[in-house]
Amino acid sequence: MARPNASLSQPIIPMRRFYPMLCIHGRLHRITRLQSHFGFSKMSFLKNHRGAAAVEFALVALPVMAFIIGIVQFGWVVWVDNLLHISVDTASRCGAIGSVTSPCDGSGTSAMIATANSVFHPLTGATFTNNSSCSIAAGSGLAGSGLVGTYPISIGLGIFAMNLTLTAQSCYPTVPE
After folding, report:
1. Between 109-119 and 52-97, two packed helices, what is the crossing angle to 10 degrees?
2. What's the total number of domains in the chain?
3. By the 8 A CB rule, do 131 and 143 touch?
4. Which of 36, 52, 139, 172 lies 20 to 30 Å from 70, alpha-carbon distance?
5. What distance in Å separates the CA atoms of residue 155 and residue 81, rounded to the nearest whole number?
6. How many Å apart are CA 125 and CA 48, to the nearest integer?
7. Are 91 and 115 in contact (CB under 8 A)?
8. In a domain, 6, yes or no
9. Better-scored residue on pLDDT, 140 or 160
């Protein structure tokens, strides 16, 4: 008996070729592949998904990396702000009690600034000044020693860069003698 499409040059149903391949368990399985005409078919071109993972990675990787870098920069800004607060608090305390024990350099504005710079040592570029609002004349009712520290920071990249100025101030009451 002849096939119904035997007179046609190409069969209606595409031929399948089977390729034996070892399975994970060691048994042979047959993998089928549709035969294309002249090495190219319109349907296989439209169903081609090669490179889709690379395109998806390119679309997702940039925002994810920007988010991760933003988290790291935010953590760095918080660390610098904490270090600035610790340095002015330590210097104000050292100036109020007049200590010369490390890291303190004694009392007085210049000694407090030197103490604040030594505590803020991992970074440079901070400006420390006397806290003028930390006196009885300023109306605070306290007689004390204090510092104000400022540190400029630039975060971001390229056109997305932002300049911030971190500020910390401290007022430690002076020990009466």
Report:
1. 150
2. 1
3. no
4. 52
5. 14
6. 57
7. yes
8. no
9. 160
Nearest CA to 102 among 121, 84, 80?
A: 121
Residue 26 in any domain: the answer is no
**141, part of any domain:** yes
String of DSSP letters for the chain = ---TTTTSSS-SSPPEEEEEEE-TTS-EEEEEEEPPGGG--HHHHHT--TTHHHHHHHHHHHHHHHHHHHHHHHHHHHHHHHHHHHHHHHHHHHHHHT--STT---SSHHHHHHHHHHHTTTS---EEEE-TTSSTTTTSS--EEEEEEEEEEEESSGGG-EEEEEEEEEEEEPPP-
| Domain membership flag for residue 30 | no
* Residues in CB range of 16: below 8 A, 6 or more apart: 32, 33, 34, 35
pLDDT tier for residue 106 given thresholds of 50, 70 and 90: confident
Residue with tokens 């035997």: 6
Closest CA to 169 of 69, 92, 67: 92
Residue with tokens 């505590």: 119
The average confidence (pLDDT) of the chain is: 79
Residue 20 makes CB contacts below 8 A (sequence gap 6+) with 28, 29, 30
pLDDT tens digits for range 128-149: 999 888 876 555 555 778 899 9
Q: What is the mean pLDDT of residues 17-22?
A: 55
Q: Which two tokens stand for residue 145?
A: 């020693």
